Protein 1
Amino acid sequence: MKLLAARRRHPMALVVLLLVGLLMTGGAYAVFTTNSTASAEEYTAQDVEEGEKLFVTNCATCHGMNAEGTENGPGLVGVGAAAVDFQVGTGRMPLQMSGPQAQVKTPQFSEEQISQMSAYVASLGPGPAVPEDEYLDASQGDPAAGGGLFRTNCAMCHNVVGSGGALTRGKYAPNLSEVSEKHLYEAMQTGPQNMPIFNDANLTPEQKRDVIAYVREVSEQPSAGGAKLGSLGPVAEGLFIWFFGLAAVIGITVWLSARSK
Amino acid sequence: MSTAPATTAVGKAAQFTESRVGASKMVKEFGRKIFPSHWSFMLGEVALYTFIILILTGTFLTFWFKPAMGELHYEGPYIPLKGVEMSEAYASTLAISFEIRGGLFIRQMHHWAALLFMAAVSIHALRIFFTGAFRRPREINWLIGIALIALGMGAGFTGYSLPDDLLSGNGLRIIDGLLKGIPLVGTYVSFFLFGGEFPGIDIVSRLYSLHIMIVPALLIAAIGVHLMFVVIHKHTQWPGAGHTEKNVVGEPVLPTFAAKGGGFFFMIFGLLALISGFFTINPVWNYGPYDPSPVSAGTQPDWYIGWMDGFLRIIPGWTEFYIFGWPISFNIFSALLIAALLFGAMAAWPFVEAWVTKDHREHHILDRPRNNPTRTAFGMAAVVWYAVMWAAASGDLMAVFFHMSLNDMIYIFRFLFFAGPIIAYIVTKRICLGLQRKDREIILHGYESGEIIRLPHGEYQERHKVHTDHEVWALSSFESPEYVPAEPDPDGKISKWERRRAAISKFFYEDRVAPVTKDELDAAHHDHGDHGVDAGSHSGGELPRGH
């Protein structure tokens, strides 16, 4: 201790302290990130090679030959396999047309090709991996806990039961009822388009599973009260009462006041 | 009154009651009341019947609803909320929905009936306005009707806020904002209502008192007076042969009108039951318990509050300023000003119109909307103005459905907020004047029958038919207000207000299509006299096109 006390005003002390601090945060970060990149599937060198070919043919125009990004598309180093699996797996990529945001369409590639492209992008730098199956099993999640998380983190844009909603300038948060468990997880993990990233420090994999369980529960449960009218709330109900309810009422009034001729 | 002693059981019972209550005179009087029959006269009835349904279903709900905000953990059958902390109010609403037999059905019926009630009230009010039924002697009843609209909005909103779910809490937060936006006293008013800082633990029980007692009591009282006035003033009627300002042509209450009305009530009841059985309304379980932090996308109020919400969505954010360091914010508060403006304009209209036209006579014959183009045009301008604000409340949903930018939707609504009423005014007025000219044409020259005839020398003509006298009367017997120039008062001076009145009168009635006079009608029919147009017949004559 005496040694430390004697040297604490040494000119190099600050540098040493900074170094120690950086090493510790960096080390801790590495530990956490490797944690989240724990890959569900191991990619072979051949996957990476095939993936690179597909990438160069289909993606490089916008994302650059080495996925370094161009002015038409972001760099993909470090986005991880999950991002590729989500974007290509939901058909958003390759982009069909430019617009406020990428649209869902029938995926253009097979599962195997998507996995190869994921392998290639994952090989460029560490990033979130395709989630493991145990976190995608909605039956193991707690929908009530997920509901609380969903209302706090997701409902703002996606609506309380995931019916979707508007964002600024033509962008929108899509309806979640038809989205697969894997893509729900990946969307939370990678924050595609306008969505914020919910990494494992925000929402643990178990919490993400709870959110998935909630989304599955509310989109698959039978509606207790009859037709859901899109689960859009009072606007749909108001339209219904004017265009169906009141129209029927006026029909009745006309019928009742009609004279037999 | 008969004095012979009754012999049958029914007769004895009737005599017993009559000698103590003496209601036969009243029943006789009321039973002979005449109501004209027209579909548009039944819209107010719809409002009355839905109100009765609201009372019936609402009473059912009070048996199980717990208006308290004590916290508990949900242990009911709805899995996605199992163990979630919530208020007793929300938990009891979930219990009504999932555990009480028939509870969800009655809850949905209550809510659908509320939406239909306000819709019926609205189009009933529009019918009154566009037909001029608010004119003397019915101005007070018009004001009561406006009070009923405001009370209906209050009843609806307090009910919407009771379940204490996320949606209703978000709605209350806006009310809190509206109140806090009132300059100077806003914060105090909000604290007074919520019993402290929003949301507090008092608001649900306070809203409950308002929703099940105070507002319905006021509604019942106002509806009672409203209906009493209908009996006192007698019902208005459309122009037609034999319809005068001194009579009412229609069906007596007993038996015809009462039977029809009773049947109509059950049809409305049945319709609402069908809707409630097949269509979800306000699935409270979706929204979760209220928590001030989350807000769901697509959070809207029920439709009748929507126009105020829409106004809040389109008002720009710079309407806030400081006076000596005190913030005066119109960003939210102005929704109250807009409401005051709309309700104020509605309330003032009958008096303004009477002042402008100098017409203070009683009116029991209705105007066809086209026959008062300026009033109809103002009405449509107001409808469009309301509808723009109303639509703006769902701008986010429209943006998603029509793949529009939400920002553009706001700009469009802002533009329409100003331009919409003006366009509606001009278009409506022109349409009305055009329809009036068409009416003149039909009266004077008959209508196109679609029959082409060939004359002996080869010429083709379309046969024009004329209406029966009854129909001609209905088309031509209307009052058409004229521009009344400024008139001097007894001292021979023209006051400033009289000048203004004259200017408004000119604006109102300068464009005018005069009703067909008897001379014009005779002259027109004389022209075609050779072809046997019989103006006195009820069968409808025929005449070939004369020009």
Protein 2
Amino acid sequence: MNARAAVGFEPAVEAIGLRKHFGPIHAVDGIDLAFTPGRIYGLLGPNGSGKTTLIRLLAGLARPSGGEARILGLTMPDRPTLGKVGYMPQAEALYPDLSVGENIGFFAALQGVRGSAAIDRSLDLVELGSRKGAPVLELSGGMRRRLSLAVTLVHEPPVLFLDEPTVGVDPALRVQFWGHFRKLADAGTTILVASHVMDEADRCDELVFVRAGRVIARGTGADLRSTAGTDNLETAFLRFAGLDDAGRPLDAGRGPDPEAAP
Amino acid sequence: MNPRRVAAVARRIAEGFRRDRRSLALLVVAPLVIVALLGWVLRDQKSTVVDLAVVNEAGAIGSRITDALTTATANAPNGVSLVETDESEAVARDRIRNGQIDLALVLPSTLLSDVAAGHQPTLTVITAGTDPAAEGGAFASLQSVLGTVASTIAPPGSAPIIPKIEHQTVYLSPDADQVDVLAPVFLGLFAYFFVFILTGISFLRERVGGTLERLLATPVTRAEIVLGYAIGFSVFATLQVLILLGYVLGRIDVPTIGPVGAFTIGLGVQSAGNPAIAFLVALLMAVGAVNLGIYLSTFARTELQVLQFIPIVIVPQGLLGGIFWPIDRLPDILQAIAHVLPVTYAVDALREVMLKGGDLGSSAVQTDLLVLAGIAVLFVLLGAFTIKREVA
């Protein structure tokens, strides 16, 4: 099946039979995706389901074992295309000794951003404009997360990959973050947010459920709920994964999961 | 004091070691390797026969002494071998400079008249002056040989005449001490050591903290990262080398002020050659060390593991690089190892420049600089290569 034909126009982000193997572990095991520009996609799945590996493949940070990842029609890894991608890693990924301004200035310079206007705009967006001179070492966890987002946005990339951007972020700030994401999407940015927090899922335009390196379901939150016959996304995920409400396999032929068995 | 809590802390350490097998292995293996290496170097040093030349300006009596010396040094019982007689002191000095002989004994033209007049005659012994420890040993061996010779040629029944010996050196002054000789050489090792550790830890943090990942998600190239790192650290390596060089070469005598006694800042070592070339050598070492640090940081997961590279990377270079023992006295296998170590070439170049006054025209200095530049380029490639591997 050709993902492009299904969408009907040039997708901003595309995965075609994408695979990544680490020895015997199939972290990403044949994923096809096509993301429409200007939409927010939620990548949902338990820890170890391959979310981060998928994002690293899409962002050109890892070479696929098979298949292809494309950003704006260009096959990744492609260095120049990285200028059009914003990647917010799960790790803090900031220089603790440097100040807020020095951190964002450094990555802005690598992205070819000139002048301080873009830096100030990006810092104001996450409300760190007044802390420009503060060393990252002295920032709280939430502030560091905000700075990390500002660094990701400083070159105004048309494609954003955010790996668990709201981990450790308090609820009020989380609402602000999602407000930013929505504004950016409305302006045409394509955003992929990886999360294992299901209550954030409804803020996305479309959801992708992954488990063991494979896409087990995709669609809007409403679609997925009705298909699974539940009004709870968590339960819907378990249904698509073939598990009962306690996380045990539904398929009796496969026998009980030794890990989950009482 | 609760013994259970103490036990819990102790158990935590043991569990840490169990998980970090490499640290455990290093705890045992590293000192063993170093002690074994030291034992090997000290025990199996090649027997050092000192090659002696005699310059006879004393005529017939000189010939008698030379003949007696030839007999006394046959098969080098005292570790001294008479290899030649040179027609003049100048020739002998040239041959020391070229490394063909270790010692020259000058029998002066005044020898016979001094003896006849009942004065104690003075003989001159010339050494290179670049290795006081080894030369001191050679000097002592020669003195004992001369004692034998004196009693051989003394007329029966009369006491042997023991000559006075004046020590001259081709390079430096005969009063030069170990500091004069070792200090310049340590420049090379230190430039290497500290820069290596700092870059290794710095790049490890880059990997572990996720900033390298973020870096690689920008259009930056590997070459740009490695070059930027090299320039950034080289600025500080330059500063370090300048300060160290200043301390080695400079000397400020601080007079007594109040209760503080007079003291000296700086070692006041005389450099025979241009310190700028010494600086260039140290800088090349530093650039190599930056990239070696980047490369080896791949093999470390924690900062502790970076420090564990010290006994593997730094100590052998200190032992085998020719700082303490001349490389040609090392066992053959260790000689082969010494010839691939950057410190070996840095030490040689620094000796050549600072002790012997070599400049860029000297072929030894040229070779050393070329090899050091080659090693630096190799490490740059290794550093860049490991960053690529991270992405693949």
Protein 3
Amino acid sequence: MNWDVVIPLLVFLLFIFAIGFWASRHIAAKSNFLQEYFLGSRELGGLVLAMTMIATYGSASSFVGGPGAAYSEGLGWVLLSMSQVATGYFVLMILGKKFAIKARQYKAITLVDYLKGRYNSKAVVLLSAVSIIIFLFSAMTAQWVGGARLIESLTGLSYTSALFIFAFAVIIYVIIGGFRAVAVTDALQGIVMFVGTLIILVGTIIAGGGMGNIMSDLANENPNLVSPFGHDGSLTPLYVSSFWILVGVGVVGLPQVAVRAMSYKDAKGMHRALIIGTIVVAFMMFGMHLVGVMARPILPGIEVADSVMPTITMEVLPAWLAGVVLAAPMAAIMSTVDSLLLLVSSTVVKDVYLNYVNPKATRKKVKTMSFAVTALLGIAVFALALSPPDLLIWLNLFAFGGLESAFIWPVVLGLYWAKGNKYGAMASIIAGVASYSIIHNIWPEPFGMHTVTVPVLLSFLSYVTASLLTARKAASLS
Amino acid sequence: MAAHEKKDWRFKIAHREAWIGVGLVLFNFLWWFGFAYGLGSKPVSDYQYIWGMPAWFFYSCIIGSLIMIVLVIVVVKAFFKEVPFEEGQEEEKS
């Protein structure tokens, strides 16, 4: 085992646990358990808010899959990844103050609570809860597989023991600390990701003999690598642009991101988060993907895309520094997984159990349920991840695209279009999820765009059409 | 409820800020797209290089991000207003 690399990782894990314990004291002290456990009592400040949004969103695909793809595609993939800069400001500006105010009016703790308050419909609540549970469960599994693979490749442990360590670490601090632990560890993880990116970026440029040198090596190997069109010219402008929907503006519809837009304390925090978030996300996405490209002339011939990032780090940095940098993808994966785990748990406990199974549950009962459901979900994902499906990015993007198609319009038009109603929301969720699943399986990437484009459009049309068609009926009822 | 909602002064601010977000993202996209494919569609042998990077990449990805960061800072400082989120505080201003 490579102790120089393992020790920084262990120190990092210890910090994470310490935060979990610190946060669990808050849970004991606050009177409103649900609000504290699932939303941190809406007390996030600017830095933590910015970091938790980015860290939740930036996952295995930004730190492992993404640089791997950039390694094989060249600068065209860095260009594609820059569509994510928009997430730094767009989500908070669009949901913004109105979402924060409305969420407080509805006393919403989850995204589904918000939809319940806005549309007042059991069908909408159940539909959205079910889509969250199904899609985020698969996203979570993909991330756990990524986390375990990473530990496996860094430490030389077997996949199963690596998965066990990863699962144990995450489950413990999420169960005891809830949202506050998740958000504060996300902030720590975000800082680790930022610093890690900086170190590896500088290290790689030096190892390659300077930027000019690296670029001419790339152009000599294959001129397409320095063009925006990918290594074989297949990245068309239309295809790359369609990623603005998937990883740019569409992120507004992701429940794990949207729920953070109701967790901040005041407008000042939100303003700071906008600035910090844009800077951090732009730098991280740019740095990590560029490192993937620059790794090519330094280490040609890496076969497994997911191993590009760990391999280049160990190559260009001294071992102890490599440990610090490799804590970054670890942090990215953990910070995504912890949020997903808590979100799925809140959907089960708050949206399904408290709404429909046992609305009169006592505080103690709710508390036990929350801990138990979180633990059970964690164990279930662990079991699934033991015999993992192969394509990490595929599963992950499937979940992202499906959720975005389902929720973007019920959330955004629900906020800003007074005529939108529950029929529109239902039609939109059904059309989005159904068309995404169908197109994904039988007609991937229609018209040369990413699969998500058409479902998002269909779900928009369904929302508007259904809302307008039923407008008279809804008006006469009320 | 509906009448109350229309009158809530905070929503006017929120709506304006959301439109600013839409404007920013459109500008961001146009800049990104214009430089990447405007300069990058030439044959690679004709590329110009800035700081060792192809010019399309430098302008689209690096300058583009820096401009967005500056724009976000300016917009937030100059146009975004602080409003209270809790109920019952809204009569204080307006």
